[in-house]
Structure of Pupal cuticle protein Edg-78E:
Amino acid sequence: MLSEKLIDIQCLTLTKIALAASSASVAVQLFTLKVIPLIVIDMVKFMVFVALISVAFAAPEHYISPEGGAEIKGYAADLRPDGSYRYAYETSNGIAAQEEGVGSHHANGGFSYTSPEGIPIKIEYTADENGFHPDGAHLPIPPPIPEEILKSLQWNAAHPEEDDPQYEIHSRHL
C-alpha cells in the first residue's frame, strides 16, 4: 500500500510538474508574444531618442548665428504730422542705421555693419525723384563713358527730332 501511495504521489508530482511545465511553456509563449515585442518597441524608441540627442549635440557651432543674440542698444524714431520722419538704431553686434525724410518725396540716411570678412561697411544714401544714390568706399566705381557715347549723347541733345512733326511722319513709314 505504501508503494501504491508513493506511486500515486510520484504520478501526482509528475502530473504537477507536467502541468507546471506546460504552464511554463504557455507562460513563455505569452511572454514571447506580448512582452518581448513591447521591449523591442521600447528599445527602438530609445535608440531613436539617443540618435536624435546625439545629432543635436554633434551639430557644428557655425549653424548658430552670432547675430541671433544681438540686442538693440539704442533706438529713436520721430514721425511728424507734416509727413517728415526720422529714425536711428544701433545693435550690440555693430549694426547701425539712420534715416530722415519727407513721406515719399525724399530720404537721406545711411547704415553701417561689419562684413563676414571683418571689413567695416558704411553706406550713405539719398533717395529722391531721381532714384536711389548710394555712396560708400567699398562700392565699385563705374568705368568712364566712352568718347563716342558722349558725342552721341551731345548730338542727340542738340538735335531733338522728336519735336519735328515731319520726323514723326517719316519714322512711321520705316
